[in-house]
Amino acid sequence: MLAGSHRNAWPDETGTGGRTNRNTQFVESIRFLGELEPEFFLNDSAVEKAKQHFQKLACKDFTANLIPLLEQLAGQYIAHSPQNFAHICHGICDDFHHRISYQFDSAITIGAVSYLGAPIYDVSPDSIRQAVTKGFQPGEPLNLHVWLTFPDMTVLDLTIIPTLVDKGLIQPGSYPTPYVIWREDQDSPFSYIPLLQHNNFATLVDEIMTFI
User: Fold this and answer.
1) Where do the domains of the chain lie?
2) CA within 20 to 30 Å of 56's CA: 105, 164, 179, 185, which one?
3) pTM, to two decimals
């Protein structure tokens, strides 16, 4: 299934396996989508199956093959993009998500990001719900962050580095790459908490054309 053609990611896939806190957080972010849009409601059985599916994909071989490809694609995308990616996380994620949708399943994820233990945005389910309710507000910044999550729970964040540079929180070139590839089981100055999974989030908060 191509996640790019749906608002939520992999809702009908099943599998077997255990649970991790990361899987649970991500599935809860899909459940939150069901609160905002009832047609994507997940019952308890569907939630359990989703957790099992993600755990099944959380294998070293999957991740080992995925990360080099993400590094290549992210590097090329940034190198060929003329604009600065600071503070436009929802638009960049939407564009990149659709560009790779025929190669990878990915999920546009909205939530909280921290750097060196300090939150970058004051974001919560309530603040996300308010942003969705208000819709497009020109000139008003979104107090949240958006990234891509892959089936093994690998995070690709194309915009946090230029955003932190623009905020004066890090120096240009101080991070080894212009993007962040993050996994919970690896040491990193970053931390990500998914709160909402919505592949068409950008259309709710901005005037962006996207695929349905």
Assistant:
1) 60-205
2) 179
3) 0.82
